[in-house]
Amino acid sequence: MIIRTSGLTKRFGRVTAVDDVSLHVPEGVRFGLLGPNGSGKTTTVRMLLGLVHATAGEIEVLGEPMPRRAASVLPQVGALVEGPAAWGHLSGRANLRLLDAAGRGGRRRDRRRRVEDALERVGLGGVDRRPVRAYSLGMRQRLGIAAALLRGPRLLLLDEPTNGLDPRGIQEMRALLTELNLGGTTVVLSSHLLSEVEALCTQVGVMDSGRLVLDSPMDALRTPTGRILLTTPDPAAAVGLLDGRVLARAGDRLVVRGEDAASLNARLVAAGVRVSGLTAERRTLEQVVLELTGTGSDRVDPHTPVPVPGGTR
Amino acid sequence: MIGVELRLMLRRRRVWLCWTLLCALPTLVAILLAATRLTPPPGSGGAFLSAVVTNGQIFPAAALALVLPVFLPITVAIVSGEAIAGEATAGTLRYLLVRPVGRLRLLVAKLISVAVYVLLAVLLVTVVSYVVGVLAFGFGPAASLGGAGGIPSLSGATLTPADVALRTAVTVGYLALCMLALGAIGLFFSTLTDAPLAAALGVLAVVVASAALTPLDAASAIRDYLPTTHWLAWIDLYRDPILWTSVRQGFAVEAGFVVVAFGAAWANFATKDIAS
Amino acid sequence: MGGPSRFSRRWVLVAAGSAALLGAGSASGLLPVGADVPAGDLRARVLSGHPPFTGLSHSTGRLGLPEIPQLRSTTALLTGTTTIRSYRAGPDRWRVDELTPAGERDTYHRDGVEYVWDFGADQLTTVSGSTPVRLPRPADLDPPELARRLVGMSRTDPVSVIPGRRVAGLAASGFRVTPADPDTTVARIDVWLDPESGLPLRVEVAGRADPGLPVLFTEFQEVSLTAPDERTLTPSVPPGAGSVTADAADLAGALRQLDAPAPPARLAGRALVPLEGALPGVGLYGSGVSGFALVPASRGIADRVIEGAAIAGGVDVEVPAGRAVRVSSPLLTVVARGGIRRGRVLLVGTVAPAVLEQAVRELPTRGRP
């Protein structure tokens, strides 16, 4: 486990921002922390980094207790917390150099190389000397990620990493994070964007009003729903053949009850019904999140709700 | 971190603006005095101001007396109030802390950068006003009259240039310490709030309150422990023989303020939740 | 996590440190004070010696006198705090500096000649000669000088021992003089001195109006029992500064211009004290701490005092001719008479108001008796 918390609680006066959160992030995963704004994601990330002190509970990062061992833990952690920040009157390069020089570790001689590497990785390799205050939002975001990558971290904690990036930038960032993850870096990102987490993460945690309502591998979430989506040029024949198992029909698309897509295919083909598309339906992340955090949602799901599978925490 | 902090400070435009303004006020006064030759009558006006026209070498002392009551404290309040609160507002504080930079180490670096700021401020005023004073008013009576480049002390005896240099050096150090005490208070206020302006105004409130209490007889019990009480003690360095009593006392009190205010800053900042 | 407990522990540490610093600043209260010594011995020690010393003292007066522009430097001594730096090698060789925030006024005394250096005026004045009566000046107010003067004036009054205290880092023993004369305004004179050298370190004077509150007190901030060196006692004129000479007898000349009548032989039942070197029209009456002085005044000064008296809470005194007012401060009583040519006078003394009122009524109303 690269991050382990137990009973983590933070109260600001009478407001409980984080309530009894026990989070487990195994090494090597891409973990997505989802939740609406104000659900306690950022406070949790700040507590993991020792910026905010917990009211109760234990935190272990990289196997060591935080914030007591911050001095040995944090050098192996790269972080982006609530948006990037930089000294506006200096260039991006000068910012990274100063940040690198501010803490211990890393030889002075390698500083220039480290800074150039980090800038290169986030696509700012050719940035000029203008001060950061003249940067666009996207450039600042890239600079913030470069700062997180500066020390070659074992763990990356990124809060809303794709904020301000255009679609191409988002694509690049996903590729970068996947590449880093394949190289052994554990990536933890928090986001309120489902698509973001769904596209990138292998494990997901969901927070709602301070509580961790879900912490599970992505695969386990996306269980079959017991329905098969079928596309066929002969919908009428298919309906005739499958009779009572067709739940819905829209043009050439059918929703069929059942779990075994292969046997359904064999049966259709044997009966001469052509199949142009066939998938066993899996639950989307969105569905899961909406079920768990349902109160805040004003959407009405077209499907009848599927019972939440056991094992959610 | 200390090197980083100093580089950050020296590259701030605001810091250079403060220094420039501090040097500009005495320069303006020197130009006006040189042009009009209208000195304040003896015994009124700023300290030493009545004597500068006859000897430009006293001008650094007069310049320090000019900037000390208001100008210097304002710039110290601005610079020190920004120390932590400025980083918090910019958001760089959280990145420094997760870099990681220890909180105590960050505070020490900030205090040192404030110390360097005040020392350079006092030194710049001294050097600039010496040059300006000599250019505007000359070196004083010629050697044939017994002047020989020295300046008269408050007690009448003439101070040799070496003597003047020594006393000026002690003055610069002493005033820098007085201002550092203010800076340490600013650093403490800066850990209390995320608004640099609020911290700076807090420092000025301390200065004004202390200056208001100093002349009150009713406050005589606490007078010696107020920060502004000792600000003018350096004038005793220009008496002959030097009167160390109040300088020594002032040194102890101001150093105490640095220790206590820094301790308070540490106590507050060490476990503070960084929510900016 | 223990966040709250660590939080408070740090603050406790800082509070303890601040308290320790404050304690160190006021720790002198715990150091030993001077032992009790028979009061008569202490009085004798004050009167017997002039130990050489160098020291810095603060003298504070709370007499509440009316402001008189011509006498501002004198009234300031009795109504505010004066910082005095004294270097005394002996009774006739000393230097006393009155320190102001941005300057100083130094009086040097060598072999009967006085030199006054005024930084504000950028001028050294050499004063030759002396007068038997003069206005108080800072040099009269450092603790040894004030103690010697007051104790000398009250040689016959009873003394008692008071608790010792710590002054300027020295353990001082104290004694109190309680003037016996019913007409004096002085309730007590307290003196603390270094029992070894006999050097007075602190003097307090309280009036009868409120014996608990000292209205004049002077104390060393710092003192060293070493004689000042010769260079310190030598006045010097910096290049470019002015240098003038004055004669103390000039004062006599100024008084002579007023053409005041000679002082009567008795006033309010007190005899005229004979003075060496006459000042026209000036008389001292009474003895010890219950005496007063009669000084002819110019029209400007007399009118000013009479006008200022109203603000200072003065009262009119009925006199046969002209106009007179009395101002009572806790220690000093002042009566001014104006409105008579050649008969304008000031009566100043540490005596009960009734005594001076009687004196002003007894004064002749015409130029010559």
Keywords:
heterotrimer, A: 313 residues, alpha/beta, Rossmann fold, Alpha-Beta Plaits, 2 domains, six-stranded mixed beta sheet, five-stranded antiparallel beta sheet, 11 helices, 15 strands, elongated, disordered C terminus, B: 276 residues, mainly alpha, two-stranded antiparallel sheet, 10 helices, globular
Count of alpha/pi helices of chain A: 11
Through-space gap between termini of chain A:
17 Å
Query: Strand arrangement, largest sheet of chain A?
Result: 7-8-9-4-10-11
Low-confidence stretches of chain A: 296-301, 304-313
Distance between the ends of chain B = 21 Å
Largest sheet of chain B: 2 strands, antiparallel
Strand content of chain B: under 5%
CATH class of the largest domain in chain A: Alpha Beta
CATH topology of the largest domain in chain A: Rossmann fold
Order of helices and strands of chain B: HHHHHHEEHHHH
For the CA atoms, what is the radius of gyration of chain B?
20 Å
- CATH architecture group name of the largest domain in chain A: 3-Layer(aba) Sandwich
Helix residue percentage of chain A = 25-40%
Helix percentage range of chain B = 55-70%
Structural class of chain B: mainly alpha
The share of residues in extended strands of chain A comes to 25-35%
- Assign an overall shape of chain B: globular
Mean pLDDT of chain B: 89
**Helix and strand succession of chain A?**
EEEEHEEHEHHHEHEHEEHEHEEHEH
| Main pleated-sheet profile of chain A | 6 strands, mixed
